[in-house]
Amino acid sequence: MNESLNVDPGRSEAYSRLRACSLFFKVAIDLLLGSALLFAQSQNPGITAKFNQATEAMREGKLEEATAGFAAVVNESPSFAEAHLNLGLVLEEEGKHDDAIVSFRKALALKPRLRGANLFLGIAEFRLNQLDQAAAAVQRETSSYPKDAAAWMWLGIMRLAQERPDDAAEALDKAAKLKPDDQAILYHRGRAHLLVSKSSYAQMFKLNPDSWLVHRVLAQANSEAERHTDAVAEYEAAIKLAPTQPGLHEELGSEYRAVNRIADAEGAFQKELEIDPYNVLARYKLGAIEVEKGDGAKGKELLEAAQREKPDLVHLDYNLGRSEMLMGNDEAACEHFERTVKTDTDPEIIVQAWYQLGTAYRRLRRMDEARNAMATYQQLKDEAASKSQHALERYKVDHPNLREEAPTSPNPQ
Q1: Which of 87, 115, 286, 387 is deepest in the core (most CB within 10 A)?
Q2: Please, what sign has the CA dihedral across residues 14, 19, 21, 25?
Q3: What is the CATH class of 9-200?
């Protein structure tokens, strides 16, 4: 990339990500070289030999040799569109963006739908900060080849640079559908949607800064940042403005749980079910509270009612296992805890499930299994403590002037 290029500060991140896509870029080059090689084989033997040599030099990173080789090919065969394209690719890799653009345009003049030509023309123009021209070129590529994920990704990147996040998100959504596991696409897509969200929320604040929706957004932001006391205050403000809005009391109940206001949480979940009897999460969380209070039968009733509506609720088997233990149904509890240690993704819940499993096995006089379960529990607990200690030590090194804060334990709901 041309280091002397003046980049607008608002676009600097988009430019900094260009090299992160280098593998993507090189794979595309390989594909283009392969298709061009097939074309070269239809030329006279001398042209084919030179083309092959230039191609090999390009693959090996010998850019000056590749440039000279492709330049010789286009001089001898000026109608060879693929050779102009590959010459442009080498020039682009050398940072000679203006010269690359000339070659890409020659290739397109000879073959207007030559695959990759508009894409790489757009990339070269983008690197020269010619954003409108670049986006137009890549959009032509997406029109000609709508299943090309690379083209959609680059169109999204360019829309971000143009400060058009809605259009960027649309393009990057299409790229993600075509290549759902591509990290570069996922990164830019997430960034685009984040900008869209920020824009939407800013407009909300502008329209009515004291609406219940604004308070809900602030509450959700505080919750995600683990500022649960602030989240409670914002949810309470939202409920004052919209007391019968479905979902608000359930979300408030979760925040009460996070600050250990259990009675208030129970009341919030019950109020939610009065407003919306079909709120599965409120019913499930209320069931978990009943289990924590020691009422296994009532907890199980609520948990199973939620399960019928949503079988994949998080930590469901763990909470059902605890309800069965409270009722003395140790065989049933074991089945739930055995599933928990196999399928749950929360390490802390898995540790607790091994402890509960060991207790249930002991009650059933399955002593070997009980000892194994408790040994696994202790091993996992020790490993977690060691990781936590190492993390704390690293944190102290990185933040020498910050006071220690006690970590909060996640709620098994």
Answers
A1: 87
A2: positive
A3: mainly alpha
